[in-house]
Specification:
DUF2304 domain-containing protein, about 70 residues, transmembrane, transmembrane helix, flat, mainly alpha, single chain
Length: about 70
């Protein structure tokens, strides 16, 4: 039996879509892209990888905030 992780599948879809040449897109195409990326974010957020990315972003923001003061 073959199983596939939905987050991995969505990451592949995002990667393929980002590699396409830039061209005018329809509203439906833009909405689909935004939806796929949001769902990918929701699937990654509760994982250990999602928590590590969140921690890295928080440290980056804190560093920028301290540097600006």
């Amino acid at each position: 039996m073959l199983t596939i992780n939905v987050a991995v599948l969505l990451a592949i879809i995002v990667f393929v879509r980002l590699r396409r040449p830039v061209e005018p897109r329809t509203r439906l195409d833009q909405a689909f892209g935004i939806t796929v990326i949001l769902v990918l974010g929701l699937l990654l957020a509760p994982t250990a990888f999602g928590h590590s990315v969140l921690g890295a972003v928080q440290q980056l923001v804190e560093g920028i905030t301290k540097a600006s003061h």
